[in-house]
Structure formats: C-alpha cells, structure tokens
Amino acid sequence: MSGSVISKAIQQLRSREFRSYLCSTHFWGPVANWGIPLAALADIKKDPSIISGKMTIALCIYSLLFMRFAIRVQPRNLLLFSCHFTNECAQVIQGIRLVNHEYLGDKNSQ
Questions:
Q1: Whole-angstrom Cα distance, residue 50 to residue 95?
Q2: What's the pTM?
Q3: C-alpha span between 6 and 8 (Å, rounded)
Q4: Dihedral of CA 87/64/66/18: which sign?
Q5: Could you give the CA distance from residue 107 to residue 101 in angstroms, rounded to a whole number?
Q6: Burial letters for 39-53: b for 16+ Cβ neighbours within 10 Å, e otherwise?
Q7: What DSSP string describes 37-71?
Q8: How many Å separate Cα 30 from the centre of its chain?
Q9: pLDDT tens digits for 44-68?
Q10: Do 37 and 87 form a contact (C-beta atoms < 8 A)?
C-alpha cells in the first residue's frame, strides 16, 4: 500500500504538469510573498513600540485583497491564499499588540 502511494507521488512529481507549475508565477509569486508573513511572525516577540499602525493597517488591507484575488483567479491559487491568510493573522496580532501598548495602558506599565 505505502509503496503504491510513494510511487504515485514520485510519478506526480515527475509529471510535465508539475514541472510546468514549478516554472509558473502561480508557484514563485506566493513563494516570494512568504517573506512578508514570516517577518511579521518574527516581529511578534519584539517590543510593541516599534509597530507602525499605518503599515499594519495597510498590510491587513493588502492581504485581504490578495486573499480574495487568490480565490477568484482561475485556477485558484491556494498557495497565494495561504500566504496572505497567514499574513492577515500576523498583522491582526500586531494590531492588537499595538492597541494594547498604545491605548490600553500597557505603555504606562513599563
């Protein structure tokens, strides 16, 4: 059973369609975009005083728009969607941290 699954997976990886996908912008565009959510996730542990509210809002809007685009484009680009979904989550967390720091008293307790 597992040998059959592995051989089918190898055949899929060797297929012309998969090689075509690896050479397309449907693959490399989202791969290049992953730098944004990875940076946001890395910044979650940093001091909230460095968070830019304007940039956080801009990145939230940007990711919402591109999540919609990734679903609406044919064929659907789920790799792009997952990238921007991750970024949206990270930016919302950053926004919450900013509000807590600036407006809810976290700033005064330090």
A1: 12
A2: 0.77
A3: 5
A4: positive
A5: 5
A6: ebeebeeeebeebee
A7: HHHHHHHTTS-GGG--HHHHHHHHHHHHHHHHHHH
A8: 8
A9: 999 999 999 999 999 999 999 999 9
A10: yes
